[in-house]
């Protein structure tokens, strides 16, 4: 979770919504950002995907309506 938050903090961004919970041995994190354009959204999703143990990242441009980072 700290690595995911770091990505936002170094850009001085505060999520409009944040939820984290343990799901077995994994940590599911769901958050929403407002006011970012598609290019920044895609870039940040790619950065999240490069974090060790991050398994899946969904963005609003995908089938799911909310951004979601699943960190193990």
List the helices and strands and how they pair.
Blueprint: H1 2-9, E1 17-23, E2 26-32, H2 38-49, E3 54-58, E4 68-71
Antiparallel strand pairs: 1-2, 2-4, 3-4
What does this 3D model show about the protein?
There is one protein chain. The chain is an alpha+beta fold. 28% of the residues lie in helices and 32% in strands. It has helices at 2-9, 38-49; strands at 17-23, 26-32, 54-58, 68-71. A 4-stranded antiparallel sheet has the order 1-2-4-3, covered by helices on one side. Residues 63-67 have low confidence and may be disordered.
Mean pLDDT level: 81
DSSP summary: helix tally? 2
Distance between the termini: 9 Å
Give me the side-by-side strand order of the main sheet.
1-2-4-3
Biggest sheet architecture? 4 strands, antiparallel
Shape: globular
Question: Which class of secondary structure composition applies to the elements?
Answer: alpha+beta
Helix content: 25-40%
What's the order of the H and E elements? HEEHEE
Question: Beta-strand level of the residues, as a percent range?
Answer: 25-35%
The total strand number stands at 4
Instruction: Report the uncertain regions.
Output: 63-67
In short:
The protein has helices at residues 2-9, 38-49, and strands spanning 17-23, 26-32, 54-58, 68-71.
Could you name the key traits of this structure?
single chain; 72 residues; alpha+beta; four-stranded antiparallel sheet; 4 strands; 28% helix
């Amino acid at each position: 979770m700290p690595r995911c938050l770091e990505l936002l903090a170094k850009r001085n961004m505060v999520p409009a919504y944040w939820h984290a919970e343990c799901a077995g041995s994994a940590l599911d994190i769901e958050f929403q950002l407002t006011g970012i354009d598609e290019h920044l959204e895609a870039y940040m999703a790619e950065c999240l995907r490069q974090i060790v143990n991050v398994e899946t990242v969904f963005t609003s441009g995908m089938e799911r309506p909310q951004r979601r980072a699943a960190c193990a």
